[in-house]
TrEMBL record, chains A, B:
Keywords: Coiled coil, Cytoplasm, DNA-binding, Transcription, Transcription regulation. PANTHER family: HEAVY METAL-DEPENDENT TRANSCRIPTIONAL REGULATOR HI_0293-RELATED, REDOX-CYCLING DRUG-SENSING TRANSCRIPTIONAL ACTIVATOR SOXR. This is Cu(I)-responsive transcriptional regulator. The gene is cueR. SUPFAM superfamilies: Putative DNA-binding domain.
Length: 136, 136
DNA sequence: CTTGATCTTCCAGTTCCGGGAACCTTATAT
DNA sequence: ATATAAGGTTCCCGGAACTGGAAGATCAAG
C-alpha cells in the first residue's frame, strides 16, 4: 500500500508518516520503484500513533507504548512496569477528560444560544485542588 | 504570588508560564519590583492550560476553551457552538482513552512480570476500523 | 553585607511537524 | 503514443510550542 492510502487509513498526513519513519518509529518496505510499501501492521502502528499522539502522549511515550507489543527482546518485567505506569497516567487523563466533558455539557445545556448568557460554573475545568473560588 | 508559586500550583514550568503570557493567554499584574504577580484566577487559568494541553489540545484550542468562560463580549450562540464541537471531540477522546486503558489493564494482568510473556491482544490499541488482523 | 535563591529579559536550540521546490513514476485522456 | 495530472521521492526551510542558558536585578537569610 502506498503512503497516500496509509495516510487515509491512519488519519496521519503523509508528511508526518515520513517523519515517523525518519525517527525510527516504523520501517515500511520499499517497492521496486522506490515507493514506500505499507503493510497492514504498519498501518496498525500508524493508527496507534495517531491516537496516542492526539491523546497528549509525546513521541517518546508513543515509542515506549509501541515497544510494549512490538519488542520481543524486552523483558516481561519491563513490559509490566511500563504498562503499569502508563496505565496510571491514562487513568488520570480519563478523570480529567471526564471533568472537562461534564463542564462542557453543562455549558451546552445552560447557554441556550439565544441571548447573552451567564455561563458560569466552568470552574471545574481547572480541576479541584488549585485555587477554588476563582471567578474569571 | 510569584511565578515560582504559580508554577508549583499549576504544574507548569515557569518558562512555559512566561511563554503563555507572551502569546496572550493571560496577563498577570506586575508588582513594584517588576515581578509578575499571579492572582488566584490566573492560577486557575494556568491549571486549566496545563490540563487541556496534556490532553492533546493545541494552544489555539485552549485559547478557545478559555474564551468560553472568560470572554464576556462573546455571543451566547458562539459559546454554545464552540462548546458543542469541543464536547464531541472530548467524547471521542474519552472513548479512545478508555480503549487504551483496557488494553493496558489487560497487559498488566496477563504479563505477570516473572518470565518471558506472550502479551498479545494489544490490537485494540490501534482501535477498530483500520487494519484488523494485524499481528505485530 | 554577602551569599544563594528567585526573579527579569533575551537569544539560541529542540521537538514535531508543515510548506514548497525540484524531480520521478503512474494513471488517465486524447 | 503522448500530454497531463496525480501522487510519489528527497531536501531544505519555516513555524508552533516550548526549553536551556547567559547576564543582570531583587529578595530573604546568616
Amino acid at each position: 500500500m502506498n503512503i497516500g492510502a496509509a495516510s487515509q487509513q491512519s488519519g496521519l498526513p503523509a508528511k508526518t508518516i515520513r517523519y515517523y519513519e525518519d525517527i525510527g518509529l516504523l520501517t515500511p518496505d520499499r517497492a521496486g520503484n522506490g515507493y514506500r510499501d505499507y503493510s497492514a501492521s504498519d498501518v496498525h502502528r500508524l493508527r496507534f500513533l495517531q491516537r496516542s499522539r492526539s491523546l497528549g502522549f509525546s513521541v517518546e511515550e508513543c515509542r515506549q507504548l509501541l515497544s510494549l507489543y512490538g519488542d520481543h527482546s524486552r523483558e516481561s518485567a519491563d513490559v509490566r512496569a511500563i504498562a503499569k505506569s502508563k496505565l496510571a497516567e491514562v487513568e488520570r487523563k480519563l478523570t480529567e477528560l471526564a471533568e472537562l466533558r461534564d463542564a462542557l455539557r453543562h455549558l451546552v445545556r445552560n447557554c441556550h444560544g439565544d441571548n447573552r448568557p451567564e455561563c458560569p460554573i466552568l470552574d471545574s475545568l481547572a480541576g479541584r485542588g488549585g485555587a477554588r473560588q476563582a471567578r474569571i
